[in-house]
Write a structure and sequence with these properties.
Distance between the termini: 29 Å
Largest sheet: 6 strands, mixed
Helix content: 25-40%
CATH architecture: 3-Layer(aba) Sandwich
Number of helices: 8
CATH class: Alpha Beta
Number of domains: 1
Shape: globular
Radius of gyration: 16 Å
CATH topology: Pyruvate-ferredoxin Oxidoreductase, domain 3
Order of helices and strands: EHEEEHEHHEHHHH
Strand content: 15-25%
Length: about 200
C-alpha cells in the first residue's frame, strides 16, 4: 500500500495519545503496517503533545518538514505551529476551539486571532476541514470526547483507507467500557460534521 504519514498535534489533556492508539489498533484490525511515535513534552502542564503515525511500508516514524500527508490538530494554535510539516498536498483537519497557553492566560503572551490562524492554514494546505470539535464533544455528553470527534472527521475525510467498522471496533477496544457509547456518539458527530463543512 501507499505510505501515509499522519501527524496529530494537541496540548496536554486533549486525548492525543488515546487517538493515536485507536488509529494504530484500527490498522492492526485491517492488517495494515503501522509505526507510531509520540512526543509528550510538558504534557502535564498543557504543553504540546505530538504523535506521528506512518501507515504502510516505512522504516521510520520520522516525518520531516513537508512530508505529512495529513495533519490532525486538536488545538488551532498547535495546528498552525505544525504547518511546516505540511506541503501543498497535505490535508489538514483542525478543531477551531482554542486552548490558550498559560502565558496568554496570565497576560504574558498573546493568543493569535482564530480567523487569522485558519486563513494562514487554509493558504498552506491542499484541503482544510476546520470546525468546533469541542462543541460537538459537549453535545456527545463530555468535552473529553473531542479527540474521538476528530477521529470521526478524519475517517470521513477519506484520507485513511480504514473502514468505519475498524475504527469503531478500535474505539471499543481502547476506551473504557463506561465511555464506549459516548465515544461512539462523538465519533458519529465528527463523521457527520464533515458533511456540512
Amino acid at each position: 500500500m501507499q505510505t501515509i504519514r499522519l501527524i496529530i498535534v494537541a496540548v496536554g489533556g486533549q486525548g492525543n495519545l488515546l487517538s493515536s492508539k485507536v488509529l494504530a489498533e484500527a490498522a492492526r484490525i485491517e492488517d495494515m503496517p503501522v509505526r507510531l511515535s509520540e512526543i509528550h513534552g510538558m504534557a502535564q502542564r498543557g504543553g504540546v503533545v505530538e504523535s506521528s503515525l506512518v501507515f504502510g511500508d516505512a522504516d521510520s516514524t520520522i516525518i520531516s518538514d513537508g512530508e505529512a500527508d495529513i495533519l490532525l490538530g486538536f488545538e488551532p494554535g498547535e495546528t498552525l505551529r505544525a504547518m511546516n510539516r505540511c506541503s501543498e498536498t497535505t490535508t489538514v483537519i483542525t478543531n477551531t476551539h482554542p486552548m490558550p497557553p498559560f502565558t496568554a492566560a496570565i497576560g504574558k503572551g498573546v493568543y493569535p486571532d482564530i480567523d487569522e490562524v485558519i486563513r494562514v492554514i487554509r493558504e498552506n494546505a491542499a484541503r482544510l476541514y476546520a470546525f468546533d470539535a469541542m462543541d460537538l464533544a459537549k453535545q456527545a455528553g463530555n468535552p473529553m470526547t473531542m479527540n474521538i470527534v476528530l477521529l470521526g472527521a478524519l475517517l470521513k475525510s477519506g484520507t485513511l483507507p480504514f473502514s468505519r467498522q475498524s475504527i469503531e471496533e478500535a474505539v471499543r477496544r481502547k476506551t473504557k467500557p463506561a465511555f464506549t457509547d459516548m465515544n461512539l456518539a462523538a465519533f458519529e458527530m465528527g463523521f457527520s460534521a464533515l458533511e456540512t463543512t
